[in-house]
Amino acid sequence: MNTKKRTSKEEQFGDTSKLKHGWLLTLIFSIFSVVFISPIFIVLMNSFKQKSFINLQPFSLPTGETFVKLENYARGLEQTGFFDAFKNSLIITVLSVALIILCTSMCAWYIARVNSKGTNFLYTLCLFSMIVPFQMVMFTLSKVADMLGLTTPLGIVIVYLGFGAGLSVFMFVGFVKSIPLEIEEAAMIDGCNPIQTYFQVVFPILKPTCITVAILQAMWVWNDYLLPYLVLDITEYKTIPIAIQYLKGGYGSVDWGAMMAMLVLAIIPIVIFYMACQKHIIKGVIAGAVKG
Questions:
Q1: N or C, which terminus of the chain has less Cβ within 10 Å?
Q2: What is the architecture of the domain spanning 71-288?
Q3: 142-270-132 Cα angle (round to 5)
Q4: What predicted TM-score, i.e. pTM, was given to this entire model?
Q5: Domain boundaries, the chain
């Protein structure tokens, strides 16, 4: 009887301590969430203010005196050519992410299933590319891209494939090693060739990691400023970050109202994409970290 009473008391105190820790963690993470979300809220709030009040009262809500409705959005759309920039950014992001997923997943499958010095060397190169600073190669890269004619939205997709391959191959290799080899052997016994095995058996299993890679790469490509600025012919093709940068005038003058409005429009698509797919990202990261 005493043992049972002790056990019930221990379970009760244990549940109470877990409950307290749960509330504490919830409070801590709620504070962190507010900290991370507050810059977005400040940008949204200032996008409806007169530009003269943004510097004077950056943290105050729009009032009757400072509220300008959609004037900042109209002026920003007119000055930046936002819709052309949006089209270029969308094309570059969608094609880059699709090419990265397709090529790196196939490469990772080959590396994971063919154990040789060549595949080990290839995997080492992919990992090494993750630690090389972009500043070391950016001038050579811009010269080579210009020589090869990669200064268009379609051409820069190849450049993004090269820079995005390292992390993607690393994540896919970890996931492929966790897939039982017997599944692929059964497909080959049923008459599938390697291409059919990959697309009909392996690739559907890679869905969690594909979504994770898509989220990470899409956020990077969509928000990237430096690489398009170095590679693209910006007299003809501008992405959203480059177009927004043109709101800066001479002698340091900036149309803060229009810039805040354009930043809001730039944020909305990638936030929607992330919210739609974020439930898969943790699953994909954990799966990609599995060692074979």
A1: N
A2: Orthogonal Bundle (1.10)
A3: 35
A4: 0.82
A5: 2-46, 71-288
Instruction: Compute the distance between CA of residue 267 and CA of residue 274 in angstroms, rounded to an integer.
Output: 11
Please tell me the distance from the alpha carbon of residue 283 to that of residue 100, in angstroms, as a whole number. 20
Q: Are 171 and 212 in contact (CB under 8 A)?
A: yes
Q: Are 173 and 115 in contact (CB under 8 A)?
A: no
Dihedral over Cα of 263, 221, 105, 131: its sign: negative
